[in-house]
């Protein structure tokens, strides 16, 4: 099996036309957790109609809380994509039960299928591929399945820091997508530098991985908060973007905003319409309201909250 090789590429430095940014941000998605969703009085005041909302399933969160959050968001008119982390799903019966609950109570028909950042599996599953192979999502008629991508690698999967295992997994998922009735895409971990992201996406395409990429982007947040999350989530070389910013006293106390990375990716997309990054997926590490406000200011009509439409 051919492995994916990566080279360093500098990000574009030219100013990006607002129209290109708006085009990249069209149909963006955002991630919430039950405990963060509870703090939002009305999602329709923050998010555009039809925004896909992922619900992150952190170890220890009761499935009842996950389903209740999904039900609330679906009632407000948002497509809901809950996480299905393999390592916290005990067995096939549990998987089938979760799917049935989401469908029965919230009409969910899409999922982000991932291994999950848990050291010891709770049961028989340890990878997203096992969940996909179970056939339970197909049996339930799920229309969309997203899988995880790691532009800078993942030391949980490749402890040596390489890309061998994550690359092989994506090749497997590409092959699976060609036999599945569900629409599939790659939703990635967040990163802070456009050049390596572009190189990673181009390399996937060159190696026959044609799944659309929904690139993970950290929303506005305090610099200290972002650095903490980036280290905890295993963000790779692009962490230096934050570390360099932290050394600049004039920027240290200012909140980070993703203008640079979004602008560079948007410029590349405008110049290369067949670029395989198709959507932006936000991690609102500084809060949902701060992220939604940034999107309203930068995404044109695609950032207008549902209550204003």
Automatic annotation (TrEMBL):
* Stored InterPro entries: FAD-linked_oxidoreductase-like
Kindly list the GO molecular function terms attached to this UniProt entry: oxidoreductase activity
Provide the alphabetized UniProt keywords: Oxidoreductase
Gene3D superfamilies in the cross-refs: 3.20.20.220
According to the lineage, what is the superkingdom?
Bacteria
Q: What is this protein called?
A: Methylenetetrahydrofolate reductase (NADPH)
What species does this protein belong to? Roseovarius nanhaiticus
Q: What is the lineage of its organism?
A: Bacteria, Pseudomonadati, Pseudomonadota, Alphaproteobacteria, Rhodobacterales
């Amino acid at each position: 099996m051919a492995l994916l090789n990566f080279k360093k590429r500098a990000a574009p430095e030219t100013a990006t036309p607002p129209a290109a940014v708006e085009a990249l941000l069209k149909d963006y998605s955002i991630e919430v957790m039950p405990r963060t969703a509870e703090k939002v009085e009305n999602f329709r005041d923050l998010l555009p109609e039809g925004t896909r909302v992922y619900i992150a399933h952190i170890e220890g969160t009761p499935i009842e809380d996950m389903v209740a959050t999904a039900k609330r968001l679906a009632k407000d008119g948002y497509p809901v994509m809950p996480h299905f982390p393999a390592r916290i799903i005990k067995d096939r019966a549990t998987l089938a039960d979760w799917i049935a609950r989401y469908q029965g109570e919230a009409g969910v028909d899409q999922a982000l299928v991932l291994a999950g950042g848990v050291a010891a599996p709770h049961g028989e599953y340890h990878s997203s591929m096992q969940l996909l192979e179970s056939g339970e999502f197909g049996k339930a008629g799920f229309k969309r399945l997203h899988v995880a991508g790691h532009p800078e690698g993942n030391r949980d999967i490749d402890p040596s820091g390489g890309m061998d295992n994550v690359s092989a997994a994506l090749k497997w998922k590409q092959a699976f997508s060609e036999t599945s009735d569900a629409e599939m895409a790659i939703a990635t971990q967040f990163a802070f530098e456009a050049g390596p992201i572009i190189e990673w996406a181009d390399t996937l395409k060159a190696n026959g991985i044609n799944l659309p990429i929904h690139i993970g982007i950290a929303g506005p947040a305090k610099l200290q908060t972002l650095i903490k999350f980036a280290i905890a989530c295993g963000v790779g070389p692009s962490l230096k973007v934050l570390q360099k910013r932290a050394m600049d006293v004039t920027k240290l106390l200012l909140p980070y905003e993703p203008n640079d990375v979004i602008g560079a990716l948007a410029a590349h997309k405008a110049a290369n319409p067949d670029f395989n990054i198709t959507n932006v997926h936000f991690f609102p590490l500084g809060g949902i309201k701060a992220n939604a406000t940034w999107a309203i200011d930068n995404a044109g009509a695609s950032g207008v909250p549902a209550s204003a439409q």
